[in-house]
Amino acid sequence: MKKLINSADTVVTDALVGMAAAHPGALRVDVDQRVVYRAIPKDAGRVAIVSGGGSGHEPLHSGFVGSGMLDAACAGEVFTSPVPDQIVSATVAVDRGAGVLHVVKNYTGDVMNFEMAAELAASSGIRIATVVVADDVAVEDSLYTAGRRGVGATLVVEKVAGAAAEEGRSLEQVAALAERVAQGGRSMGVALTSCTVPANGKPSFDLPDDEMEIGIGIHGEPGRSREKATGAREVARRLVEPIAADLPSADGDVIVLLNGMGATPLLELYIMYGQVVGLLREAGIAVARSLVGNYVTSLDMAGCSLTLVRADEEILRLWDAPVASPGLRWGE
Amino acid sequence: MKKLINSADTVVTDALVGMAAAHPGALRVDVDQRVVYRAIPKDAGRVAIVSGGGSGHEPLHSGFVGSGMLDAACAGEVFTSPVPDQIVSATVAVDRGAGVLHVVKNYTGDVMNFEMAAELAASSGIRIATVVVADDVAVEDSLYTAGRRGVGATLVVEKVAGAAAEEGRSLEQVAALAERVAQGGRSMGVALTSCTVPANGKPSFDLPDDEMEIGIGIHGEPGRSREKATGAREVARRLVEPIAADLPSADGDVIVLLNGMGATPLLELYIMYGQVVGLLREAGIAVARSLVGNYVTSLDMAGCSLTLVRADEEILRLWDAPVASPGLRWGE
């Protein structure tokens, strides 16, 4: 294992120290609690948004802390849920009197720890709502999950909920919007290589030089099938078809996220996006907005994932609203 | 070789097709000529900025086309200079009567082809100035270069020149500023793995499982030394020391770019940045601005590079000016 780290034991804290140094005016990092906050808290009376999860998926979630998106992100160990204590700490710190929305990816540990934290925070008088994102159509009940896994749609939920909170909507309204986005999101991924968790020191799984794993999870959990690696067009088809078949037929065009897993060049992500767009056109699915790049990664895994989210006019307007985070930024 | 491509022959055009689809309102892509333009040309009387180079370093240069940065980027084949015809075509298309600055990385092919294009464009009455970026302190006279190679400082040159052009400065002024930035920039990189050029189908060089290449070029050109891979702190020291020793002692703090080579997780880049900042503090070099992420990549190479650029108040003001490109975006 060759990695630009100091020690497998200090990966998360060392990265948070670097993140604090890189964004001094924008972020405040509690390195001990492993929580990333906005440097300037939002105004009193606004709903706050907290997310978090295992590290190794950057920029998700810490990179989405900023005006128009998250108020705080709790970083667990690599591929390991943050503990309730962190989440309570973040929730108490960001509450501005209007309540806090927890955005949780559907993994057993995350769901359990956010639930526990929500109970603890609620007992001290903070109003909490929770949205669980479960958009991965690849498999039900995976290594870390009961039900579907939460992946790329999480970014869209965080963006839209963040914009709604910024506008001054109530906790019930922000939570309902987040739920609508989550319900309209579908994703699937493909791996060309494994990833290597620093603490393990070796690849999480073996993948022969000529094979790919269709339906991979963001922690390297098994997917739907292992197949001979093919070209971009065929890979795109293997992602678009199951997603399109499962996509709610609700009104609205889609927001498309073509996401790199960490080690795939942008050149290849754009090639994949070109293929995906052609297939969506054939399937009669109209693209309203798109995002191509590394957003929900799996350490050094090569591969990509595709996310489609149904978006009505309200969701699109909130998607387009200004955001200023290290990982997502526009329209300031 | 496993890659998300259709064919090694169509990598660049397929990626441009995807890029056009991903940024319909912002970019106009001439796929035949392989030039990426802003969708909306800048106002008449403003200096235009054209850059370009081999593909495989995305987002450089095509991802930096947009308001406040480049007017056009010419994409060569992977790791191969664009041809004069492309550059002439881009130069003629973007000239708004105030002349065009060519930003060129110091590789023999790029320098020659941009020179030839500048002569051709000049003969049709367009005023051209050229800045050649040669910031890599690792080696003189490498595989593709006479003199030092051009790497990370190119991004800073393009950003600062782009902002100056947007303000309505003359070609002479924009070129002088670009030259000042280029002169004040120093970089060095490290590779943990090779990259694989699609047309070759195999890694560009061999690097044993426990070794790293210090001073790597962005096409996999040999660096200064091959060594046992060590931790982030030691790698940071091996980059900071030669850069600091070579950095002009001019006034001004530095803009720092901690750049991923393509396959290195953001988590590791932040760890590296934390180490770099500590070493710069020890060396008495004050950081004015920073950027951490994948900006000047080498396909699927794992590793990173460090760039320091001396920045006086004028350069910092232009660095902070609004930019809206797919790869760099703030302060709109």
Describe the structure.
Helix content of chain A is 32%, strand content 23%. A 6-stranded mixed sheet of chain A has the order 1-2-4-3-5-6, sandwiched between helices. A 6-stranded mixed sheet of chain A has the order 9-8-7-12-10-11. Chain A folds into 2 domains: 10-184, Dihydroxyacetone kinase, domain 1 (Rossmann fold, 3-Layer(aba) Sandwich); 185-320, Hypothetical Protein Tm841, Chain: A,domain 3 (2-Layer Sandwich). Chain A contains 8 helices and 14 strands. Chain A is of the alpha/beta class and 332 residues long. The longest helix of chain A has 17 residues, at 266-282. The first copy, chain A, has helices spanning 11-22, 84-94, 108-123, 153-166, 171-183, 232-246, 266-282, 313-320; strands spanning 27-30, 35-38, 48-55, 72-78, 100-105, 128-133, 185-191, 211-214, 225-228, 253-260, 287-293, 303-311, 323-324, 329-330. At the A-B interface, helix 1, helix 6, helix 7 and strand 14 of A face helix 1, helix 6, helix 7 and strand 14 of B.
Number of strands of chain A: 14
Specify the structural class of chain A. Answer: alpha/beta
Question: Biggest interface, which chains?
Answer: A-B, 62 and 62 residues
Looking at the structure, what is the overall shape of chain A?
globular
Radius of gyration of chain A: 19 Å
Succession of helices and strands of chain A: HEEEEHEHEHHEEEHEHEEHEE
| Domains of chain A, number | 2
- How much helix is in the residues of chain A? 25-40%
The CATH superfamily of the largest domain in chain A bears the name: Dihydroxyacetone kinase, domain 1
Residue-averaged pLDDT of chain A, rounded?
A: 96
Q: What can be said about the biggest beta sheet of chain A?
A: 6 strands, mixed
Runs of chain A in which pLDDT lies below 50 for 5 or more consecutive residues are: none
Number of helices of chain A: 8
CATH topology (fold) name of the largest domain in chain A: Rossmann fold
Q: Please identify, by name, the CATH architecture of the largest domain in chain A.
A: 3-Layer(aba) Sandwich
Strand order in space, largest sheet of chain A: 1-2-4-3-5-6
